[in-house]
Amino acid sequence: MARGWESKSVEAQIELRESRRPAARGVALNALEAERVKKRESLLLSRTRVVHDLETAHNPRYREILSAALKHLDDKLSEV
C-alpha cells in the first residue's frame, strides 16, 4: 500500500513541476493561464488528499463518498 501511495505522490509532483515549467522559464503568463495553473494545482492537491484518505478508509460508505469525490476531481482535472 505504501508503494502505491508513493508512486501517486511522485506522479502528482512531476505533473505539478511540469505545470509550473513555463513560469520557471520566465515566460509571462496572462491572468487566465495563471488562474488555470492555480486551479490545476489546487485540484491535484485535493486529489492527493482524497487518494490518501481512500487508501486508509475502512467504512464502506465513506469509501463510496471518497470514490465519488475522486471521480469528480478527475473530471475537473480533465476539463482544466
Radius of gyration: 15 Å
- What's the total number of strands? 0
In DSSP terms (H or I, runs of 4 or more residues), the helix count works out at 3
Runs with pLDDT <50, length 5+?
none
Described by strand count, sense and barrel closure, the largest sheet is: none
Rounded mean pLDDT is: 83
The string of secondary-structure elements, in order, is: HHH
Global shape? elongated
Task: Determine the N-to-C terminus distance.
Answer: 29 Å
The secondary structure category is: mainly alpha
Task: Describe what this molecule looks like in 3D.
The structure is a single chain. With 80 residues, this protein is mainly alpha-helical. It has one domain. The protein is 86% helix and 0% strand. It has three helices and no strands. α2 packs antiparallel against α3. The mean pLDDT is 83.
Summarize the structure.
With 80 residues, the protein is an all-alpha fold. Helix content is 86%, strand content 0%. α1 packs antiparallel against α2 and α2 packs antiparallel against α3.
